[in-house]
Automatic annotation (TrEMBL):
Swiss-Prot/TrEMBL catalytic activity: Hydrolysis of DNA containing ring-opened 7-methylguanine residues, releasing 2,6-diamino-4-hydroxy-5-(N-methyl)formamidopyrimidine
Keyword presence, rRNA processing: no
Gene Ontology molecular function, alphabetical: damaged DNA binding; DNA-(apurinic or apyrimidinic site) endonuclease activity; lyase activity; oxidized purine nucleobase lesion DNA N-glycosylase activity; zinc ion binding
UniProt keyword list: DNA damage, DNA repair, DNA-binding, Glycosidase, Hydrolase, Lyase, Multifunctional enzyme
EC number per UniProt: 3.2.2.23
Keyword ATP-binding: no
Matching Pfam families: Fapy_DNA_glyco, H2TH
Protein's name according to its UniProt entry: Formamidopyrimidine-DNA glycosylase
Signal peptide feature range: none
Ranges for domain Formamidopyrimidine-DNA glycosylase catalytic: 2-87
Family, per entry: Belongs to the FPG family.
GO BP: any one term: base-excision repair
Amino acid sequence: MPEGPTIVVFKKRIEKFEGKKVSESGGYNNPFAEEITGKKLISVETYGKYLLLDFKDLLITVHFGLFGSFLINEFKKVNASFSLFFGDDFINFYVVRIKKLEKYYQFDQEINVLSDQYQSKKTQKLLLEKYAEKNIGDVLLNQDVFPGLGNIIRNEVLFLSKIHPESQVNKIPAKKIKELLEIIKEFSKASIELIEQKIWKSSSSVYKKKEWENQEVVEYVASKIKRKTYVVEKVQKIY
């Protein structure tokens, strides 16, 4: 499933259609085709794992799930689930889920690490108030706290901050939590360029790796969230 930085890369590819009118909308999983047709695409934004298409009085959210993708001015052999035509140009989305919001929904950009409005103190407060007794490795995949974070970012930032994923949130020193949040922000932003260069996964430190600097990377499946976890036991401390 695409993580937040990948959705930003998608946005950068699609935003060239901003300001253009939709001459036709279609797709087998698009109940809003008539409403979208004739409207101008005001802006393309992102929130977590969602692509946001703003048609002024109509907001369409696009979620790519596990297998979603899109092509610009190209077709796959299968039918598009959602499509937008701008005269001779078009975007075909495949295996995506779309939703409609009548009024511009106020996504909380203050907890979105890829937003200029991000406030790490708000995330830290949320962690301690609602998830204090949870394991940090589990909470990192909670989209209500960390929109856009997926398993790659989860594993990498915990390693970079030297925190074991089984650490309980309220036992991690405040200074260490602050450091983790800063690493999440910086890693997420840096990932955008690596994704564009198609070297994001291959440049990882521990994700799907067997060793790091001659030390074993232990792989296991986290019991509650059922996600593959990669840990360097001698580096990452359990709190």
